[in-house]
Design a protein that fits this description.
The structure holds 2 protein chains of 2 kinds.
Chain A: H1 2-25, H2 35-48, H3 53-61, H4 63-83, H5 99-121, H6 130-147, H7 155-180, H8 202-226
Chain B: H1 3-25, H2 29-50, H3 74-105
Helix pairs in contact in B: 1-2, 2-3
The chains are: A mainly alpha, B mainly alpha.
Amino acid sequence: MIRKVLYFLILIAFGFFILSALSAYFPFGENVLTGVARYYTEKGVKDLGGINIVTSVVTIYRGFDTLGEVTVLFLSVTALAFTLVGLKVEKAKLPKPTLIMETGGRYLAPLIILFGAYVFLHGHLTPGGGFPGGVIIATSFLLLLVTQENYRFKKFHITTTEVLAGTLYVLVGLLGLYYVKSFLGNFLKTGKPGYLVSAGIIPIIYILIGFKVGSEMTSALNNLKEGGDEH
Amino acid sequence: MNIESLIFYGVPIYLIVMGILVILTTKNLFKMLLGLSIMDSGINILIVALGYIKGATAPIYSRYPEVFEKVVDPVPQALVLTAIVIGIAFLGLGLALVIRIKEKYGTVNVEKLKELKW
């Protein structure tokens, strides 16, 4: 008990130290845009045609970062499946879904998928994009896995979507290398800012990321429910 | 130290500190993962709060090309977008490992995992 109180006091002192240092050096709300942030906010729309600057930063200016992130996600989901191979799930412990859950889940799931598709299609115009859109799609599959009894989908379809999306993402990057001499560079016309078909390759990349994240998260949830698969 | 700094830096730092406290004091592996996740959220909120500019909007030029509003720093937000996904990935992998430990040793209490001591 004394140990816990001691930990608490030390951590509170530590937190207070960080808090006072942060508010002395970076007062809240008085940040100034310098360097790359200034360039992104001033030239970003003219450069790439996407009005959402965060999306432009994520997909083009820091495209390598996002590619690496997708790779990390893929690796960890694969490791999850590998860890759970042959796990025995006791079916009796899962509660049986009621009629309301079953019917509601069946009608709600397609609408959630539609909303996820909307979020990643409008990634360059509104807050959102491939990662949130993919996770929203995965939640609809989670709803189906929880509410439908004996619901299962073909793992082949999920794996194929994942592999196709990842390969096409790298392919788009290589096309950028071929046309504009820069990996993941924008090789399409930027179009009129603020329209759905604009911003060059940003929507293409975000659609691919949406499919990839959605399928990866779905397979991770499925593995956590049923034990891993061998692929 | 003004009141705004206290609130908008204080809350995420409190979350970080509480996450560390959970990791240090609990013996349950699952709760340790929850502590890590709380810490992760605190760090993300702190990074976004550092990029804030008073009176500025989100970095989306909805009325382009008419107005150039004052916008907040887009770089921390993009970095946090990355960090959130990595956080989900590590949480999933950690949960898988905890499930395996529970299956093999029958407990998630770190003190009772005898095979750790050698």
